[in-house]
Amino acid sequence: MLQTLSDLPIIYVLQSLRHRRDKQDHDPSSASVTKPNGSHIEGRSASHDWETHNANPQNWPFSRKVFTASVIYIYTFVVYAGSAMYMSAVPVLVKQMGMSEQRALLGLSAYVLGYGAGPLLWGPMSEIPSIGRSVVYFSSFMVFIVITVGAASVDSFSTFVFLRSIQGFFGSPCLANGAASMYDMFDETQYPYALGLWTAAAYCGPALGPLLTDHLVHQLSWHWSIWLIACMSAPVGVLLFVLPETYAPTVRLRRGLAATGPPDVSAWARLKFYLVKPVQITLQDPAVFFVNLYTSFIYSSYYIFFDAFPVAYLEGYGVSTGTLALFYLSVLVGCLVAAAVYFLILVPYIFCGRASTPDHEAEPDHANPTPHRNDNTHTNNNTSNNNKNQERNLLPALPATLFLPLGLLLFGWTARPAIHWLPSLTGVVLYTGGVFVIFQSLFLYLPQLYPRYAASLFAANDFCRSALAAASIHYGVPLYRNLGVGRGSSVLGGVSVLGVVGMVGMVVLGRRVRAGMGRWRDRETL
User: Residue 174 sits in a domain of what CATH number?
Assistant: First the structure.
């Protein structure tokens, strides 16, 4: 029980302060370590013991994994909902305060840019063993709550935009580390389902956000688009207070289960290493570069929908803002349909195919020289064989890439008053369903390339996606107003066709690319 409590972020912070004065007594050259109960374990047996140790997140009871994952799902939902909740306030600000629409949208783009920049710090920081994930989650979210209350209280719009960017920055750890936390706990047969639920939570936030705040904003004040975020954040803060640590190197360090003491490397040196590493990987690995580029385009076009809906339905069909908020639920419908297909059909297909693939243990896998063993890694799941079939994770994305241009074209050319709104929303369902499957496939593929740097890779990906999405929020409205909904959607649909070509190339050439990168992949360590 006491060992379980030591995984909680607040307990660890207090213990770190208490033991700081004893740091000089630590002998990093020792081949053995002292466990919390005073006993010693030999360095050689420590790694072996860890693979079967009940402190290993991979070996946790399923109920504990479900609790931990559920907290992160709720956390992710609140942070993502914080972006779209503000959309209900935009027309109110334009009407009541007389500001331009582009200026009013700064409250959204600043938040998106903030939660894109944040993971560049929080992701690498969470992979420093002396810090871990739970401390980052808890400490940053406490600041998030304070900033949210401040943003909800100010009347100056300039101050509000500044606070929104800081709010997004401190709310962002779940966006990069959430998928990495799932990877910490679940083996390769469970990870797609855990990741899928996390992705669904991220989808539900923007889809439900406008609906949650529309009535409050119009009946009370535009400030309530932010006050509601504060109200939803308070219970999340309580849950994060008791969130267990999932990052294996951190758990081992806290419990004295590492084979040797921490290396004589400063936390700042570690942080710089983990900040630079994902940038190096992105620029040098074509597979990672494509994943970041393609997901950035998809994510930006996803946010353009939040600009396209008012143009298409408020101005075109003349519906009320309440009805428009209901139309956003089509995004959620697309996610749920795609999730059902993915979980019931595509995931079993992936793993059945892996199981039927012959195992060639005698051949070294240069595409994956470091299998996912549990140092933040999976065990007992035949990974050495599965790693040879990573491109199989991408197969569901091949047909899904076709749904992007089809959905965009169907939405664009049927969203006109002469045609009922249902066909256009069907296009939204097709598009968002395709996005869900593509993101699932790519996010299942990405951490397996560099397991050690999973959170940092997701952080770099989140920054690329959010930076382009923040810009798209401002060019989306001019795009649709100047070209029309049909032509504007055709432009996006035409660009999305390039993703079909890229995904085919990933599936066909991916293993060859990984083999070429294999000797560089783990050359730099810390």
Answer: 1.20.1250.20
